Amino acid sequence: MSEYDSWAEVYDAWGGTNPGDVAHYVRLARDADGPIVELAVGTGRVGIEIARQTGKQVIGIDSSAAMLDVAREKSAGLPVERRLTDMRELELDEPAALIYVPGRSLLHVHGWSEKRRVFERVADSLRPGGRFAFNAFVFSHRIAAELDGKTIETNGVVHTLGYSAADSRVDISRVGASTLHLWWATKAEWDGLLDVARFELEALYGGFDGEPFTDDSLEFVYVARKTA
Amino acid sequence: MSDYDPWAPVYDAWASEMTEDVAHYVQLAREADGPIVELMVGTGRVAIEVVRETGKPVLGIDSSPAMLEVARERSAGLPLELRLGDVRELELEEPAGLIYVPFRSLLHLRGWHEKRHVFERVARSLQPGGRFAFNAFAFSHTIAARIDGQHQVREGIGHTITYGAADNRIDITRDDGVAIHLWWATKSEWEGLIEVAGLEVEALYGWFDRRPFDDESQEFVWVARKPG
């Protein structure tokens, strides 16, 4: 039983506002010469589109059986393989050419040691020259101050947001569901995680259309490469 | 000429609200078995008290000649050695028992690589069992949202604080145009820096009275140790 199970039913509706990430990850999948793996695949919003648009097989990993059940129904007939595993325990039979984490899901990993572990697992699971791509929001004090303590509705899903600055944590609670946590990270921390796992930074964009990352960017869109 | 020179004449006034840190660093200095070094010593606010209260010599390092000039005048007759140097180039003749950085000065370092470099220099400059102690604020979105862009006067010094969220940067610009920058870091980033430098966390307090660090804490008060 995963804390994400109780979000499976509403997850597609909640994340239904398309942030434009699909085309970005589809492009990376087209470039990939070898196995493609999505971590924290959830209900398959991105993984299924990649399988559909590229015709390539996608291995989707998630720790929530309920999320993967939704993904199975939605991906009938498409080459999407689902695996119930925690990304901290990632292990692949064959090294991947692309491992990606959309939907800001890396923010669910808590603290330096756990994040470092995930980055090192990813590095170990890639072939030389293989890519690691992910995105995460930039922590905006203005947005946080606006939303802190508020109950809001996003596409029919009513939830409450709480912030702990000391732990750089966002708590997302919803009646009848487990509380989800996110831990935001700074640019320096992402750079540090790539550094300790010995990745080379290929690009940091400020969005999914290749725009440069600037002081005003609200999204980190990282593409890193395992040194050959 | 250093970026910090123009702050030397007003720095003590500017820092006058911060007094509670002194006892904490004095205590660490008392416990130190070996040379004591303060990085970014500035005008000597903390170091002079450490010398006076413990009777032990302190080596203070700073990159601003104007700051050191003020410290020199204030510490006449005391065993405070002042050295012009950049922390990124830290090199000691004799390994230290305690290296400390009060007043959030590590926040003047920019980006992962620069911070990692300094942490590694510190680790190399400590004797086995030696301590590295520093403090920094926990970035509060509530405070930031309230003061972003507002003109303030502190101890007669008019200035405006603005935030570059994507770069986790705070710009403090005086009315006369002189600016200084801080880059805030999360708990997880500090943990990462301590770890990559091969140091161990001895304690993380939430304030200088050594209360435990919790979700409501506004200050990181770190004590790390080089394995013995």
Characterization of this structure:
The complex is a heterodimer of chains A (228) and B (228). With 228 residues, chain A is α/β, with parallel strands linked by helices. Chain A contains 7 helices and 11 strands. Chain A has helices spanning 8-14, 21-31, 45-54, 65-74, 111-125, 141-147, 187-196; strands at 36-39, 58-62, 80-84, 96-101, 126-137, 151-154, 157-164, 169-173, 180-183, 199-205, 219-226. In chain A, the strands form 2 sheets. A 7-stranded mixed β-sheet of chain A has the order 3-2-1-4-5-11-10, with helices on both faces. In chain A, strands 6-7-8-9 form a 4-stranded antiparallel β-sheet. In chain A, α2 (21-31) packs across α3. The termini of chain A are far apart. The model of chain A has no long low-confidence stretch (mean pLDDT 94). Chain B is α/β, with parallel strands linked by helices and 228 residues long. Chain B has helices at 11-14, 21-31, 45-54, 65-74, 111-125, 141-147, 187-196, and strands spanning 36-39, 58-62, 80-84, 96-101, 126-137, 151-154, 157-164, 169-174, 179-183, 200-205, 219-225. In chain B, α2 (21-31) packs across α3 (45-54). The A-B interface holds A 111-113, 115-116, 138-142, 144-146, 148, 163-169, 183-189, 191-193, 195-196, 206, 213-218 and B 111-113, 115-116, 138-142, 144-146, 148, 163-169, 183-189, 191-193, 195-196, 206, 213-218.
